[in-house]
Records
---
Amino acid sequence: MQMQMAENVCHAIHTFMLTDLSGSLTDGPVNYKYKTKCTWLIEGYPNAVLRLRFNHFATECSWDHMYVYDGDSIYAPLIAVFSGLVVPEFRGNETVPEVVTTSGYALLHFFSDAAYNLTGFNIAYSINSCPNNCSGRGRCSTANSVSGRVYCECEEYWKGEACNIPYCRDNCGSPDHGYCDLTGEKLCVCNDSWQGPDCSLSVPSTEAFWVLPSIKPSAQSLGRASHQALVHSGLIYNLESSTWDVVPVGNGPLYRYGHSLALYQDDIYMFGGKLEAKSANVTDEMWVFNIPRRTWSPQKPAPPPPYALEGHTAHVVELADGEPVMLVFFGYSPIYSYINKVQEYNIRSNSWQVVSAGGAVVQGGYGHSSVYDEASGCVFVHGGYKALSNNKYGLVDHLYRYHVHTKTWMILGESGLARYLHSAVLLSGTLLVFGGNTHNDTSLSNGAKCFSADFMAYDIGYPSRTIDQMARGCFHLSTGTEKWSDEKEGALREEKRDYINS
């Protein structure tokens, strides 16, 4: 492999070696070229910390990629893959997190296909430097460092590896709201009637807020494409104690993605998905994880077998006769493509069947989200990647409602923001949708990001309804209001429609 030493600008097919303690690499001053393959080897010294800072990155989503390896070859651990628009956004001090290697080397490989191109990237690197220059809120130090590596000594009321996490703002509203714990994790300890990072929100509160757990697993935690997993690499996170525990993995399932998880009593039912280790890929396997015993066991259902699927969703529900079943919605089959079927797994009889559903005609898809409202006996399905007309495929913003007891579908209001691989939960009659892939460009970029930070809310609507009425069916009133709300932009769309009696 021939390496160029004097230049680090990617033109077509090149390999570069960078040996300075700091520098940058880029695709050039204009859009990168089609069918480009470029590789950079940043060479430090063994066990040195090397930091990569993405000052700008804009490539075709899902097709043009930058791969980052922690080592001097493609056989080293792959630690990051970038695609799409990955640039600072909104607030001036918000930046893309640094990528860190610890081997003393970093190999970066960029690939673009023959479709459209974008402005490319500018990536700065530094060897044995403090993260993000301590964010201007600390000093870089080697004190008490056995390895000689530098680290940040943060100013008061700032913490984190890069001194980028504020704590105890406004002194936690002391003494009425709480107090600042300076000895432990350096955070606010709120009084019983207050909550939030700075104890400024009452209990209960009408304002939502994010919390990032500071406890991390002791073992290395790998990244993932889906944020639905409960068990990963032999580790399980306890939400009540905020601790990680080790889970025995002997005789467990093979690694997979695109599967579904559903909880029933003390068991988690995992169905389908795409296997990493087999060329057969999509599977119809059913595995059960028992939480108290922390053991995996395969299920061998009675024939006929279910569809082998990936990108589906599942919920455990109780039918009108009290029978517990797991309902599997949609998904991609390597044989039948995108299916619009509902599969039903009977937990007691260990058998599968395809539900004969009525009502509206719905489109099956991959990577949608779904939530189950136990009070009304309805499952709400949003978004996904689907087969459209004229042999075309794309993202959708559809919202469907499936009635568990009557086995009927209804089409509800569209969100206006198509996506797939997002997540959704139901809270107090509101469907909350977060994130996902929103990219749907094919020949020209319209500025869509690969992955969205949108946070949407949909009011499923129970106006003047009693619990008894909701238990008998999804909707019983003649009129009402359904709402989609984009929480990020604050836009609110309302649709008046007749509710259909169940």
---
Amino acid sequence: FHPPANNTKLNGHFRLPLGYQMDASYYYLKLRWNIPCGPNSVITFPGAVWLKPWYWWSWPILPLGFSWHEQRRNTLGYGAEMPMVMMEAVLFLGIIAVTHVARPTFSKLCYRRLDKSVMIYTTGVKFLAMASILAAYVVPFFIIPHTIHPLIGWSLYLLGTFALCSIVINAFLFPTLAVITPAIGIFGALLAMAYPWYKDGVYRA
């Protein structure tokens, strides 16, 4: 919203023109809009609180989320989130490098070969392995800045998932493909949902 240059204020109640406030659900019916108003319009996104266009995970589920972030990139930018993004990227790359270098001794510290006939031990190892894999896919989701650009957010999420999965692979001596299969599925789903590249979707009548 750009206020008037002369700082004038309106008094009373005024009716907004038709199309000033558009429901995003109308867009998803035909993947386009015909907005019968000028450039000053508001687009609302009703629905779940955690599924809004300003969250990086909402794209490509909400194609308009990418357009929303393009508007933010051209106005406010992402200067507030980028330092945290850079630190997390360096952290994830460091984890990958450390686990790769310390791979011969890492499994000996985390996986001792005790008597496998003990039921408590085997059950504990299985539970710890499943919890570690689950944490590898959940933790990056919560530590990434929520309002970062979707392309940066998904790239950092996949990088963080791979970094934490590398710890699980080396600690429990799991096959790499079995652990990163969900990440491959997530990446494939992103490619399928993001293609074809969605246009802005807003057409001024």
---
Amino acid sequence: MKIFKKRLNLIIGKKHIAVAGLALLLGAALYVNYLYSGAQKVETAETEPGTETATYGEVRFVGAETSDKTVNLDSSESDEYFAQARLDKQKSRDESIEVLQSFYYGGDSTSDELAVISEDVREVSSNIETEAKIENLLKAQGFSDALCYISGSTANVVVKTAGLDNAQAAQIKSTLLGEIAVPAENITIVEIK
């Protein structure tokens, strides 16, 4: 009686390399977009360094001198920023969906690969819907304009405001946490003046 052992297939196929390459390319594009956004980063924290307690939604400014780091744009420049950011966001989402669809309809994927691709498509579409909902809620709460980026367990919000205070930061954080489940320390709020 022979005992057959199932061999583990460790061969990396062309599709695996292509998917990994496209994922790295998408990540690099998002990182470059973040670097060139030209906005001040305001980080919310549960506790301030050097203090024992902090108020919910309390803002901790990253730079020591916040006035030097504030981006002051006139109305048309900030409107232009938000319009360009929306176009870039839509373009990257469309490219992601197009890549996933090309793999899904490529024809030579296994059922496991198709299941993973389907889950990725569902996640992207869910993120798009949630981002739009959060943006609309923030606009309804009185912010002139807002953009939301959700990726995994992080959320980044860009808001147009004359000056972000603790109450507004708490309001943004509360809106985000009402729609998605992310750790509070993974929420980044960026202010455009």
